[in-house]
Amino acid sequence: MARKDTPASAPAPDTALSGAQQDHDPHRHLRRTRLSSAWVATIVAALVLVLLLIFILENSARVDVSFLGAHGHLPLGVALLLAAVCGVLLVAIPGTARILQLRRAGKKLAAAPPAPAPAPAPTEPTDT
After folding, report:
1. Each residue of 67-90: pLDDT tens digit?
2. Which helix (H) or strand (E) holds 70?
3. Domain range annotation of the chain
4. Is the pTM of this model over 0.70?
5. pLDDT one-digit tens code per residue, 49-73
6. Directed axis angle between helix 34-58 and helix 76-111, to 10°?
7. Does the entry feature the keyword Iron, yes or no (predicted)?
8. What are phi and psi of 42, to 5 degrees?
């Protein structure tokens, strides 16, 4: 006799689902692939580029830029984006160098033979 609080079509919790039922299981999760990640990254990058284009077009007033004796005229949006890119590079270059340094040290550590176990300390005889 079926219980009134569970539908008759629902499988019992302890029974396995058949192959056809597993294909239509709504709780089954799909694995993320590299291609799907690349597709999501491409869409996000396109949205960021659209926002950057809007930013540049809205900040098109020309400004004077001076740096280390060099002088020039740039649109404000371009000057701000150029400053942001330079700031990112100031962080990314040393960070990349540190990551490479740690990887190199990790490879050396993994390739080194294991250190021998220390010899047990001699025990002194006890007088009883």
Report:
1. 888 888 888 888 888 888 889 999
2. strand 70-75
3. 33-110
4. no
5. 899 888 888 888 888 888 888 888 8
6. 150
7. no
8. -65, -40
